[in-house]
Amino acid sequence: MNAMPQLDVIDINNQKIGVVELSPQVFDVAIKDHLVQQYVVGQLAARRRGTAATKQSMSELRGTGKKPWRQKGTGRARAGSFRSPLWRGGRTVFGPSPRDYALKMSKKNKKNALKSVLTERLQNSRLTVMDQIVIEHPKTRAGVAFLKSMGFPAKTLFLLAEKNLNLELAVRNIPHVNVLKVEGLNVFDLLAHEKIVCTRETLKKIEERLN
After folding, report:
1. CA 142 to chain centre
2. pLDDT score of 199
3. How confident is the model at residue 187 (pLDDT cuts 50, 70, 90)?
4. Considering the chain, what percentage of its residues have pLDDT values greater than 90?
5. Hey, how many other C-beta atoms are within 10 angstroms of the C-beta on 187?
6. Which residues are paired to 179 by β-bridges?
7. Burial (0-12, 13-18, 19+ Cβ within 10 Å), 193
8. Best CATH choice for the domain 6-47+104-210 from the list 3.40.1190.10, 3.40.50.720, 3.40.1370.10, 1.20.1730.10
9. If you average pLDDT over residues 37-65, what whole number do you get?
């Protein structure tokens, strides 16, 4: 049996104060790149509004349905409608219509994709566990000072087990620094940040959700 993966726990002074053991079923799994790619594609596709539309049927257009001129004897090409797609103001052929771009993915595969990314983040030292995340003042300068004192990179994601208003207010104006609750855990945000910062409570909730 493989040993359980472990991570150091640090305090707000960036000092090690303990060790936390992680579930190997979540943080030590076989990385399935195809599921990660499928999850991200589906997540980005679901963000598309799908509201592009053109008038493709005669019923959607204004104007008469009368034949423009008689079939023969005018010297012109025959025409059956003022709303022909060949004419200005006519209907559109094969134009876009409202649609849903969402892609289906099973819950099992979504969980395996999340486990794969969490395992990769741990293996590449991109996951940090803090005893608690405390910012005294909900000010941007306090958030910047906190990131600098902890040595966190420009792209940092704070994963929270519960709401932390001071942290959210302190970092919301800092580019590429984001706060996310466990309920919103997703592959795209995990991959988009260089460092994932969480607490022991966050890890427990993640393991409960994915086990």
Report:
1. 27
2. 95
3. very high
4. 73
5. 21
6. 158
7. buried
8. 3.40.1370.10
9. 87
Element (H, E) at 21: strand 16-21
Going by C-alpha positions, the residue among 121, 132, 120 that lies closest to residue 162 is 132
Residue type at 149 in one-letter notation: S
Q: Which of 176, 37, 43 is nearest to 120 (CA)?
A: 37
| CA-based torsion, 84, 90, 92, 98: positive or negative | negative
Residue with tokens 């959700």: 209
CA 4, CA 21: separation in Å to the nearest integer?
6
Where do the structural domains in the chain lie, given as residue ranges? Answer: 6-47+104-210, 49-100
Residue 122, token pair as written in the block: 């741990």
Q: Where are the beta strands (DSSP E) in the chain?
A: 6-10, 16-21, 127-130, 156-160, 177-181, 195-199
Q: Is the pLDDT of residue 1 over 60?
A: no
